[in-house]
């Protein structure tokens, strides 16, 4: 049995639950229970506040956890970083009132900065030779300047919309963050093996994200042209068709440039193109 800590509610909860679901590890999304079992794998889920996940994993209360890199770095508990996930992307930035003239880090000399990440900020200021007053506040950091609690803030930014609506502008990014899988140091061999199996499943889900499976009919004499339209692809699967001179081509392509690829395939004479969603991809 391996125990995984995830955020009970908040920005990382939904995507963590979705990842487990897609990896064939359905768990009860229990609102009241602290612990839930997975029916199909020796996995137990511990629902915690994200602030508490690094410590819980470091102490072995949970064997593994899914949490933002920002929380891991801020808390400083000893954990092994195992795998970067493709959600929870954000950055930690310094922001000042929009009307301020900002010419560089010297601006912060002697200023009061509100943040929920005092350790990361203190380290950054120390490295940059800035002496400032760091005020730790737990939430709603972005309103601190407008109510006179601080001159500037250091906070999580993703789109930047919250800063703008609070009359602030982002001036320096201190760190980039994303959700990661962490593990307690010195996992037993049995748990290590279970963790490896979890990561294989997560990777299969990630690999299929943004990929499409294409199936089409193509004149046989155009098969060599497929390579120029789908550069970098592994060799496509080519099957003969009952109609002479034609074959069926199957390929996996990235969704990002799907429409350009489709146009190229049409141009070399592809017909009856079908586009399928992919669920999992194993190497
Ligand atoms: P908890 O109640 O668990 O302590 P919280 O309020 O501290 O939750 P959330 O706002 O749910 O935290 O954010 C959780 C994590 O999601 C952050 O620590 C960060 O890693 C990530 N995240 C990604 N984008 C954003 C964003 N735009 N704002 C805040 N957090 C973000
Ligand atoms: Mg929190």
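^ structure tokens above, recovered residues below v
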């Amino acid at each position: 049995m391996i125990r995984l800590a995830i955020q009970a509610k908040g920005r990382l909860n939904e995507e963590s639950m979705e990842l487990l679901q897609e990896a064939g590890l359905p768990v009860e999304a229990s609102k009241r229970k602290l612990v839930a079992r997975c029916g199909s794998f020796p996995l137990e889920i511990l629902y915690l506040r994200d602030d508490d996940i690094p410590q819980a994993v470091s102490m072995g209360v949970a064997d593994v956890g899914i949490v933002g890199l920002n929380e891991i770095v801020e808390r400083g508990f000893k954990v092994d970083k195992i795998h970067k996930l493709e959600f929870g992307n954000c950055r930690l930035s310094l922001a000042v009132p929009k009307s301020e003239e900002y010419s560089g880090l010297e601006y912060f000399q002697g200023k009061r900065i509100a943040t929920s990440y005092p350790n990361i900020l203190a380290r950054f200021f120390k490295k940059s030779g800035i002496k400032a007053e760091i005020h730790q506040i737990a939430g709603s950091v972005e309103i601190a300047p407008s109510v006179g609690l601080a001159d500037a803030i250091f906070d999580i930014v993703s789109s930047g919309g919250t800063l703008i609506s609070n009359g602030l502008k982002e001036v320096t990014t201190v760190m980039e963050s994303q959700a990661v899988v962490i593990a307690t140091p010195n996992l037993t061999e049995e748990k290590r093996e279970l963790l490896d199996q979890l990561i294989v499943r997560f990777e299969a889900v990630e690999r299929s994200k943004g990929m499409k499976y294409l199936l089409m009919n193509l004149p046989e004499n155009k098969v060599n042209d497929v390579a120029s339209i789908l550069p970098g692809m592994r060799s496509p699967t080519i099957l003969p068709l009952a109609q002479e001179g034609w074959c069926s081509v199957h390929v996996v392509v990235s969704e990002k440039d799907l429409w350009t690829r489709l146009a190229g395939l049409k141009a070399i004479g592809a017909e009856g193109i079908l586009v399928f969603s992919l669920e999992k991809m194993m190497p």
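The helical segments are 13-22, 53-59, 69-75, 118-128, 161-165, 189-208, 226-229, 258-267.
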